[in-house]
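Same chain as my last thread, 287 residues:
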Amino acid sequence: MTTTTAPGSHADGVKKARAFAGRVLFVLVLTLIGLAWALPLVWLVLAPFDANPTLSLSWPDWTLGNFARLIDNPYALRSIGNSLLLGIGTMVVVVVLGALAAYSMSRIRIPGRDAILYGLLLLSSVVTGTAAMVPTFQLITQLQLINTYPGVVLVLTGGLLPTVIFILKDFMDSIPKSYEESARLYGAKPFRILWDVVVPIARPGLAFLSIWTIVQVWSNFLTPFILLRSPDLQPAAVIMYTFYTESGQADLRLISTFALLFSAPVLLIYFFVNRRYGFRFHGGIKS
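reply #2:
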């Protein structure tokens, strides 16, 4: 007695085989992309411990001498502290002003509000750009803030604040107004409502924007390079530019070691905030 295979079952088998092959190919492509991203990170971790690092990835000749050389540099470790001061200072100003402005624009009907918001967002890329460095330098000089941290913080805030307002305004719109109305019934003032009702709900979004602001300031080279003249005040992104020999060749031992230390604070802040808030970037609870 012979059995025959139904045409439908054969077609289903072909479809399953094709689907399986597609998934395998997709995983292979993702694996290759992941390796392409991982190799530079592996180099970043291994090169500082190599006595003679190169741009190629290889097993290092283990040593701690690169860290000793970096510590001997009078500006290296200080520059990381300077970057922290600039990043945290700018973050505080941007988040506080951004939260106040976003809450006001979300709750008050201003004629042409959306046009103003999009206009600020469009022009914000010009404030800290190369084309605006000459007028920015002249303005900061007239304000007598050249070679000071407040001058750098003001310029960086002008470039980052419109984006923060744009994002937070959409976040504030999603918070139910019934929460605020309940607080008003108990006599709460606007600032009290903002601090006790709105801020706790918007905390994940504020945490996300805080990290985003620090990262933007941390990697900014042009603004502090133009406005800070003293090496004692310059941040890490500017000091790294000095790790070259007199002939213009990069000193890979110093650059690789400094790059590892340069990336550590941002990673630590990211993992702390991610563990605390999980970057749950969504609005309030809908009523």
